[in-house]
Design goal:
heterodimer, A: 20 helices, 3% strand, B: Beta-lactamase, seven-stranded mixed β-sheet, 22 helices
Chain lengths: 456, 604
């Protein structure tokens, strides 16, 4: 505790002429690109809600003003301050998430907002930033301790409480965003990477197998071929097919391992055994998984694979959104010229699916501009990540940048119909004040790291 | 922990992760961009078309059919506005919406389900009453997808009067739609099914307009993008005279029997009257009802156009042709007299003359005047069947007259070959006996006889009958005018015509056709009483008027009353009524009451 206290004092001494530093040293590329994205977002929100009311644009604009203020506030505050108070920040986020369960207002069966009369706050957005700060602070305490397995369990428990509170809301899409944050932090923390990789492999194969299983279950007509029938049977029950598949997995994995060995890679036999066990266990888990997912959720999960299996139900959103994107062609239908979005074929047009409106009204040209701005955001973020002056800065910046990239990939992938529909907004563009403010907060932290890159 | 103080291993651990992360972050952007290029450039046109289809609803605006006028510009077919409800089902079916619709329009059940299946715009019903429409508008916010508009429906203001002539219209069938689609027909269009409506379909049919409406995802119209106004069909001007038609139709109806009246203008073949009784109301066919089925089952065959499709033996009216043949072939001088004792014995068969007492000695003039069967049997036997056949065909019996109406039949002119082909039998002289007085195998249609008598009035000039004199578009531009189709029968001598016309004049003035006599407007005609196996004789009368020296005949008539009895007493009075009406119309004079004929006994 003593050292931490010292660090705080030292930092404060150096921050005398902080305003001048903020103006001179800020990453203006980053801020400019974020501001441009917000402007485009405001324009698109205006375009899509033109027929309803102006209140959407006005609310978003006020959130933007708040966001810019917070950006500069977080630029001024030395990010290193947060490291010392990680436990308080974590406590605060848990309190927020608990509070919302009692006094929050529900919208679409999700109790995620606290109503402040003038505006309502989606607490999970703020809690996520607080979680990033607190987890980074926890990991950065002592890297030698991090090697121990108990530390991994602590981190998992750390996250487990948050996840539990989010599931109680229930807000699964907010939960999804924690995935890139935790993964990148764990890899940086020094926890056994072999273990992490097997965990990832397990998660990935399970997810893919679940999708395959649901797909085969719902699309009965693809089951005409013997191989498909065989796979389907093996995924549904513990039977002879299941055992054959397990044996096949074992043989195949051994074969790959054997070839790698022949190619003179030194791969230990423990890797082979662990891989086989991970694959087997995920295959076995899938056998029981479908009981936890309801039919309509199953349909929504696999609709992106073949939206035409249920074109008026689960696939409708995907088909219509894809039509909206495609119909923009190269130059788009012009500002306010969207038909798919404006006439209600595209759902959630001003929030989650705003990217499809951009594609429809401005075509590939507009999409290219938005993607370029995001590319710039990620590139500048990566630069900050590499130039951060301490490990805490690296932890923060890398998880924030990964978070933005993840948001972008999931949201746009969902619009394009190449990923399942997960209700994630597109930061800076989608309507939603809490998300905008929390995104600006994250950018403020990035900027704060950037400003202090040369200060030792 | 500052990098300054951090151990080398920690720095290595960090940078190895960050270097991988740098590329991992950029990879998704590339993948997304490739997908965007695929969807927006390679599949762009395809998706654009779908997005247009999504938002567009095209409503066809049915073009009103052309109006049909008679010769005096009286309207005999026009259009009336009718309120129609259209339904356009969405991709996503809303069960509540369908239920609401069913509760308001229970009769359109089949159509609604059909529309849900085909996903096409359908009209759920026309001529809806105010209450239903009011109800629809009240619940519109719960139904959506429904579009109320005004359509034009065919109307026949004269109801039965022109039924067979004008025909009727009906909704296009699916197979017709498939074949007519290229000509601009929609699948809810109306097509002519019979009569003028069928023959002049291409003129009467307008060009459908369209309403391009933008709708939102729930199917509610947001705005009208474009309207293409329909082009009205072309107007037809007929040669028919409504007043004459009405007089003729009423006269037949009064007899209580079925029949037909055909009136032709001998000067160019224009049809002035075309009555077929029993008739029907074509308005019933515009909106399909049960009554159509009743009409189809009616034993009096109201849908049969007797003027064109009814085949009857011509009876004594055929004697005019036998006479022309005999005189022109110079085989039987007109001065020759024959003794009529009331019957003619041929082989073991006895042919009776209608006058049981017999006519005594008659020459050719009186033979026609009193319609003596015995005289004409002798005449027929003298000239033979081959000559009769030749002259019958010369006057276009046995073939269609070529009038611009559908379903005309040809009738039969018997001959030796015809009998051989038909019955595998030789021609007997007894058959000739029958044919020479218009009985036996010979059958004609009323229009054939009308055209025949007008050719006699013209002294051998034959015109193809026609009904439509011209077609105009809405701006009055003439698109079609009829040019009379003239055929000369030059083989017949002028003296023959003089004799035949004089004899026919005598039939009306002092013979069997006295019931049609009007001193101011003398006619030349011939009665006929056609025996038939079905029952009582058919009553025939054919005539033309005025039959005066140096005056062109203006109207030629053929009247038949099925099973009416004697032609002179049943058919001739009908002709007289028509002639009086014609006289009144053209001469602007009344017929003086005393000239109305006194009750006389008319034969044949």
């Amino acid at each position: 505790m003593e050292t931490e206290h010292k660090v705080t004092i030292v930092t404060l001494k150096k921050e005398k002429d902080i305003i001048r530093q903020v103006i001179n040293e800020s990453n203006w590329y980053l801020i400019g690109c974020v501001l441009s994205l917000t402007m485009i977002g405001l324009l698109m929100i205006y375009s899509t809600t033109l027929s309803n009311s102006l209140s959407y644009v006005i609310k978003q604009f006020f959130a933007f003003l708040v966001g810019v203020t917070i950006l500069f506030l977080f630029s001024i505050i030395n990010y290193q301050l947060f490291q010392a108070y990680y436990i308080h920040l974590y406590g605060f986020s848990v309190i927020l998430l608990t509070l919302v369960l009692f006094i929050g207002t529900a919208y679409r069966n999700t109790r995620a907002w606290i109503d402040f009369k003038l505006f309502s706050l989606q607490v999970s957005e703020i809690a996520r930033i607080l979680f990033i700060l607190s987890l980074a602070g926890f990991i950065d305490r002592d890297y030698t301790k991090n090697r121990r397995l108990i530390q991994l369990f602590k981190i998992v428990a750390f996250f487990g409480l948050i996840a539990f509170l989010l599931i109680l809301q229930p807000d699964f899409s907010a939960l999804v965003v924690y995935f890139p944050i935790i993964t990148i932090m764990l890899y940086l923390s020094g926890v056994n990477r072999k273990l992490l990789s097997y965990g990832l492999l397990f998660g990935f194969t399970t997810a893919v197998l679940v999708l395959i299983k649901i797909y085969l279950m719902i699309k009965e007509n693809v089951r005409s071929s013997n191989i498909v029938n065989f796979v389907n049977a093996s995924l549904n029950d513990i039977n002879i097919q299941y055992i054959i598949v397990l044996i096949l997995i074992g043989i195949l994995t051994w074969f790959v391992w054997w070839i790698l060995k022949k190619l003179l890679f030194r791969v230990k036999i423990s890797y082979l055994i662990l891989t086989i066990i991970v694959l087997w266990s995920s295959y076995t888990l899938v056998n029981f998984s479908h009981r936890f997912v309801k039919l309509y959720q199953q349909k929504r999960l696999i609709a992106f694979l073949d939206p035409y299996f249920d074109p008026t139900g689960a696939g409708y959103q995907i088909i219509q959104t894809r039509i909206a994107i495609g119909s923009g062609r190269i130059f788009g239908k012009g500002l306010f010229g969207s038909t798919q979005a404006k006439l209600g074929f595209v759902p959630e047009k001003h929030t989650d699916f705003i990217f499809s409106v951009i594609c429809e009204e401005f075509g590939l040209l507009g999409a290219t501009i938005v993607i370029s701005l995001y590319l710039l955001l990620i590139l500048e973020g990566t630069k900050i990540m590499f130039s951060a002056r301490d490990t805490f800065g690296v932890l923060l910046s890398s998880s924030i940048v990964s978070m933005f990239a993840f948001y972008f990939f999931i949201n746009v992938g969902m619009c394009l119909g190449i990923l399942p529909v997960v209700g994630l907004p597109l930061p800076f563009l989608s309507y939603g004040g809490s998300n905008l403010v929390s995104s600006y907060m994250a950018v403020g932290i990035l900027n704060s790291i950037h400003i202090r890159r040369y200060i030792y | 922990m500052d990098w300054e103080n951090s151990p080398y291993l920690l720095r290595k651990q960090f940078y190895s992760v960050l270097n991988i992360l740098r590329y991992l972050l950029l990879l998704p952007i590339g993948v997304i961009y490739l997908f965007l290029i695929y969807y927006q450039i390679f599949r762009g046109e395809y998706y654009y078309e779908i997005s247009e289809k999504n938002r567009l609803r095209i409503f066809s605006i049915n073009a009103p059919r052309g109006i049909i006028y008679d010769v005096n510009n009286n309207v005999i077919a026009d259009n009336r506005p009718s309120i129609t409800v259209f339904y356009y089902p969405l991709q996503r079916v809303n069960a509540e919406e369908v239920n609401n619709l069913l509760s308001i329009l229970p009769f359109a059940r089949d159509k609604i389900f059909n529309a849900l299946k085909t996903k096409k715009v359908v009209s759920l019903g026309s001529d809806l009453d105010r209450q239903t429409i009011f109800h629809l508008f009240l619940t519109k916010h719960r139904i959506g997808n429904v579009f109320v508009s005004t359509e034009f429906k065919r109307r026949y203001p004269e109801n039965e009067l022109f039924s067979h002539l004008i025909g009727y219209v009906g909704e296009i069938t699916y197979s017709e739609y498939l074949s007519l689609r290229t000509k601009g027909y929609g699948y809810t269009d109306i097509v002519g099914r019979s009569g003028i409506e069928k023959v002049y379909e291409e003129y009467l049919k307008g060009v459908n307009g369209a309403l391009f409406m933008e709708v939102d995802a729930k199917g509610n119209p947001t705005r009208i993008l474009r309207t293409v106004p329909p082009k009205v069909g072309k107007n037809l001007y007929l040669t028919i005279d409504k007043d004459l038609q009405k007089v003729a139709r009423d006269a037949i109806a009064r007899t209580g029997k079925n029949g037909a009246v055909v009136g032709v203008d001998p000067r160019d073949g224009a049809i002035r009257i075309l009555v077929s009784y029993k008739d029907f109301n074509p308005n019933l066919f515009v909106v399909p009802t049960e009554e159509k089925k009743i009409l189809l089952k009616d034993k009096s065959l109201p849908l049969l156009n007797r003027a064109l499709q009814g085949i009857y033996p011509p009876g004594s009216t055929f004697k005019v042709l036998t006479m022309i043949a005999a005189l022109n072939e110079k085989k039987f001088p007109s001065k020759t007299t024959v003794l009529c004792q009331g019957s003619f014995k041929f082989g073991d068969k006895i042919f009776k003359c209608w006058e049981k007492k017999g006519h005594g000695y008659v020459d050719m003039f009186n033979g026609l005047r009193v319609s003596c069967n015995v005289y004409f049997i002798n005449l027929g036997l003298r000239i033979g069947i081959d000559e009769i056949e030749k002259y019958a065909k010369m006057f276009y019996f046995g073939e269609k007259t070529g009038i611009d109406l559908p379903y005309e039949v040809a009738g039969i002119v018997p001959s030796r070959n015809w009998k051989k082909n038909k019955f595998k039998e030789e021609w007997y002289e007894g058959d000739t006996v029958s044919v020479s007085i218009g009985q036996g195998y010979i059958v004609v249609t009323p229009i054939q006889l009308a055209v025949f008598v007008s050719a006699v009035a013209n002294r051998g000039i034959f015109y193809t009958p026609y009904i439509v004199s011209r077609v105009e578009d809405v701006d009055g531009e003439i698109l079609y005018t009829h040019t009379p189709n003239k055929k000369d029968l030059t083989k017949i001598n002028s003296e023959v015509w003089d004799f035949v016309i004089n004899s026919m004049k005598a039939v009306v003035s002092s013979g069997t056709g006295r019931a049609a006599y009007i001193p101011e407007f003398p006619a030349a005609g011939k009665t006929g009483t056609a025996q038939n196996p079905q029952g009582e004789d058919h009553a025939w009368f054919i005539c033309f008027a005025p039959a005066e020296e140096d005056k062109q005949a203006e109207i030629a008539l053929a009247v038949i009353v099925e099973h009416g009895g004697k032609g002179g007493s049943v058919a001739a009075p009908i002709a007289r009524e028509v002639l009086i009406e014609y006289y009144k119309k053209t001469r602007m004079k009344q017929i003086t009451p005393q000239t109305v004929h006194s009750e006389v006994e008319y034969g044949d």
